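Protein Record: Sequence and Backbone Structure Tokens
======================================================
Tokens: labelled as protein backbone structure tokens, with as many entries as the chain has residues.
Task: work out the structure tokens from the sequence, keeping to the layout shown below.
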Amino acid sequence: IVLRTAHWLSTHPALRFVMTAEPEVLLPHLAFDGADRVLRAGARVVAPALSAFLEPAASMRAGAWLSRMILSYVSEPTDSVDLSHPPSLRRRVADVLRVRSQDAVF
């Protein structure tokens, strides 16, 4: 889910153009209330794929977390996490799930 979504977002020609040439058009949708709408939509899209592994409420929370992670790393890439590189992505998800499971988020 993350790998394909991150790839689609980072290679989509129209989205890349807007991000580069007119970020002021896109930024209101990625900050504050706009980001909340994007993250809720992402959670609704992702949750069904997770429902085979998690309870419905946990699927929505996990979907929201995955959406937030994708949005964060696509909008602000880092050297330590490459969402287009499966081993890097697996390490990041494993690290976060390990910490979160200790906090009983899911």
Remarks:
- The radius of gyration is 14 Å.
